[in-house]
TrEMBL record:
Domain of life: Bacteria
Enzyme class per UniProt: ligase
Family to which this protein belongs: Belongs to the SAICAR synthetase family.
Pfam families (alphabetical): SAICAR_synt (PF01259)
Catalysed reactions listed for this entry: 5-amino-1-(5-phospho-D-ribosyl)imidazole-4-carboxylate + L-aspartate + ATP = (2S)-2-[5-amino-1-(5-phospho-beta-D-ribosyl)imidazole-4-carboxamido]succinate + ADP + phosphate + 2 H(+)
Keywords: ATP-binding, Ligase, Nucleotide-binding, Purine biosynthesis
UniProt source species: Virgibacillus kapii
Domain SAICAR synthetase/ADE2 N-terminal, chain residue ranges per copy: 5-232
Designated name of the protein: Phosphoribosylaminoimidazole-succinocarboxamide synthase
Pathway: Purine metabolism; IMP biosynthesis via de novo pathway; 5-amino-1-(5-phospho-D-ribosyl)imidazole-4-carboxamide from 5-amino-1-(5-phospho-D-ribosyl)imidazole-4-carboxylate: step 1/2
Amino acid sequence: MKDVLLYEGKAKKVYQAKGKQNQLVLAYKNDATAFNGEKKSSFNGKGRLNNEISSKIFNLLHEAGVKTHFIDRLSETEQLVYQTEIIPLEVVVRNVAAGSITKRLGIEEKTPFHPPLVELFFKDDELGDPLINDQHALFLSSITQDELQEIKDKALEINQHLTRIFQCIGITLVDFKLEFGRLTDGSIVLADEVSPDTCRLWDINTSEKLDKDVFRQGIGDLIQVYEEILDRLEEKV
Ligand code: C5P
């Protein structure tokens, strides 16, 4: 008997894990979307690569003491995670200017941010995930002011770990998006995924883009660059 499908998102399917209370199976899809679903495609192998990369990064974050929803990688495209109530915020950390902030605020691409910036977006496809402030976040989600601060502090702590991990493999972590979820005991942990779909990753020496921007901008072979990230993680970390 197959697991019960609970939800299908743009990049993953979510199933109830059979016989395991409060656990889910995330199945990574080969689909790629950009610009809030306006650009769509599918790449053989993308689900496997993101599952493997995200699993590896969650394990490295666990070693660094960060609590996440991740339990285990189950197969090429599936992972087992704890069920969480997802907090409807996309928490973006930026070390270097790229993407939406360059257009929104007229900041030149590659401008470094010291200290890194944390931005909050409301996770709502119909509204196009708008940028929001702290008061909006408190109004739109079920978190307290202290929990919002905890989320922002965790995002910056995770940034330090991820920056170090990627630096080890010759990559600048430009920016990334995190999602957090509440476990049944009420605590808040890192959820969703950390992959080249959700991070901007530039080669330290050449500035070559090794992330979903190759698809967004049509400037390269997505599978080849995601393979490159996985190979470097497997070799050096
Ligand atoms: O588009 P923007 O520059 O705001 O994206 C910042 C970072 O968040 C990028 O690494 C992008 O891949 C990620 N992101 C994401 N999912 C979204 C929006 C942004 O993973 N819905």
